[in-house]
Amino acid sequence: MTRLVDLTIALSSYDHTLELTNGSVQIAGTRPNFIELPIQEMLRRFVTYRDWDVSEISLVNYATLRAAGDDGIVAIPVFTSRLFAHSSVYVRSERIREPADLRGARVGIPEWTNSAGVWARGLLADMYGLGPHEMQWWQGGVDRPGRPGVLDRPHLPGGFQLHCSEDRSLEEMLWAGDLDALIAPEVPESLRRSAESGGVIRRLFSDVHAAERAYYQATHCLPPMHAIAIRSDLVHAYPWLPTNLYRAFEVAKRRYFVRLTEISASRTAIPWAAAYVAEAQRLFGEDLWPYGVESNRPSLDVLLRYGAQQGLFARQLSADELFAAVEPFVDGLV
Q1: Which of 111-120, 231-240, 306-315 has the highest mean pLDDT?
Q2: What's the first-to-final CA gap in the chain, in angstroms?
Q3: Which domains does the chain have, with CATH numbers?
Q4: Residue 133: C-alpha distances to residues 140, 180, 292 (Å)
Q5: b/e per residue 179-211 (b: at least 16 CB within 10 A)
Q6: Strands 89-92 and 73-82
Q7: What pLDDT shows up at residue 96?
Q8: How does 212-230 read in b/e, with b if 16+ C-beta sit within 10 Å?
Q9: Which residue, 90, 110, 92, is CA-closest to 178?
């Protein structure tokens, strides 16, 4: 009897991975134990301590590690989270009316390497001609001052103005008028307070979907935020592991979209879900959530360009060197 490899896998709860985590889809050759932690803790602990065998990981942080020569983990081209960053930019209504008004502005970010911030700075440069060197950046805790790890100052190229806020949260600074804008991956409490106080704080883009659609049509990017990474010693011991993981994630994803578009019974509590999927496919293509390097090359190339422009990488990276080699998916596995 072939011995199964025990794996501890840290993964957030996603509908498109459900049949993997509930055991309906098997990872061939393995006996997985899935764990779920708060997302930021999970991402930080795997990058720092490698506490488990396989983990969801920030794609930006992973690329930064690879560029710095850390080959202790290796990713597969499975992207568990994708988000446009347009809805992550919040501004003072009386000062910032359009993207051009951000030139010279004071902008808060939780961390320079935060994925939403990397994509937001990139889209402002690509779509509106606003280079990150044209703004003053303040790094710190979004909702509390001095969160551990947030105040580590990255090594940036000349021309960037990056300050650290140690005694005040970024939201406090925005509300007090000491910042003009904030880029945050989660909706800040100040936006709710703003709605109750006459709209002092608002999103930069009033029609987020239109801005995101224009960005996609210009760049062909559906921005990948997270990937799946494996400890490299396991890949050396079990060379088949990356492919088997990749195929299992693909099967789970395909089953999810079958459920999502079923019309004989509603598998999701969203009216017209199948119609929304069909509408999205007209823009993004038949596979709305592609895995693999080639299917994601435009997005990966843009992300690596942004990272290089923003001083994240110790050397230039290519999409191909980020990921373990995996064999193509075989139709019929579903």
Answers
A1: 231-240
A2: 25
A3: 5-82+223-322 (3.40.190.10), 86-219 (3.40.190.10)
A4: 18, 16, 33
A5: bbbbbbbeebebbeebeeeeebbbbbbeeeeeb
A6: unpaired
A7: 96
A8: beebbeebebbbbbbbbbb
A9: 92
Distance of CA 49 to the CA centre of its chain: 20
Q: How far apart are CA 29 and CA 300, in angstroms?
A: 30
DSSP letter for 137, please: E
The 73-82 sheet, strands edge to edge: 30-35, 5-10, 54-58, 224-231, 73-82
Answer whether residue 148 shows pLDDT above 60.
no
pLDDT tens per residue, range 182-223: 999 888 777 777 666 678 889 999 999 999 999 999 999 999
Q: How far is CA 136 from CA 104, 162, 164, 171, 282, in A?
A: 7, 6, 11, 16, 39
d(CA 248, CA 116): 28
Q: Say yes or no to pLDDT of 313 above 70.
A: yes
The two tokens of residue 251 are 């099967």
Q: pTM of the prediction?
A: 0.93
Query: What's the pLDDT at 1?
Result: 47
Kindly tell me the sign of the dihedral angle through the C-alpha atoms of 34, 64, 185, 251.
negative
Q: What is the pLDDT of residues 109-126, one digit of tens each?
A: 998 988 999 999 999 999
- Could you tell me the two tokens for 156? 């940036």
Q: Strands, E, within 11-143: which ranges?
A: 30-35, 54-58, 73-82, 89-92, 106-109, 136-139
